[in-house]
């Protein structure tokens, strides 16, 4: 019995060491904290890099001008439209902005982007929110991203099977 326990613990240590080494040295929740910090490696491809800067602007606070605020909103929008996994890191810092509208835009942007990496970021942001409504909104957004896509459901499989079995197009109902 002790031998089995030792083998299990050794296996766990190996897996943990492997996961830590291949995640940039940060495993689990500790690595997720890095996601909310702006970083230089959180850049989108060069074609979008100038428009969707990953750096958080210190001017993007509640007291910023309408022009600066619109610029940040445009960066979030461009990051969403890139449909790149790196866009999660570009959007994540705005979840903790002092501007409520920017936080909302970042949350909605992560939903539209639909990347699974956004789940941990939203859950982490929910722990840092002081407003219960925003906390719930972040949790609901993370829950939504965890849902399977329609193409992975039984309904989708049945629909595709019916389309393949019945190649004749059927007229739409009146």
TrEMBL record:
Organism: Luteolibacter ambystomatis
Protein's UniProt name: HEAT repeat domain-containing protein
Biased composition (Low complexity): 46-65
Region: Disordered, residue numbers: 44-68
């Amino acid at each position: 019995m002790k031998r089995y326990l030792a083998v299990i613990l050794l296996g766990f240590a190996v897996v943990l060491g492997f996961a830590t080494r291949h995640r940039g040295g940060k495993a689990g929740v500790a690595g997720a904290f890095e996601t909310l910090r702006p970083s230089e490696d959180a850049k989108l491809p060069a074609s979008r890099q100038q428009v969707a800067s990953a750096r958080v602007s210190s001017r993007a606070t509640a007291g910023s001008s309408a022009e600066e605020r619109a610029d940040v909103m445009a960066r979030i929008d461009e990051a969403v439209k890139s449909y790149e996994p790196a866009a999660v890191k570009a959007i994540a810092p705005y979840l903790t902005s002092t501007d409520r509208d920017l936080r909302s835009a970042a949350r909605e942007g992560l939903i539209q982007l639909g990347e699974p990496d956004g789940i941990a970021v939203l859950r982490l942001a929910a722990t840092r929110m002081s407003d219960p409504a925003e906390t719930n909104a972040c949790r609901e957004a993370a829950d939504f991203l965890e849902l399977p896509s329609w193409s992975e459901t039984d309904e989708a499989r049945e629909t595709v099977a019916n389309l393949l079995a019945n190649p004749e197009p059927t007229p739409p109902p009146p």
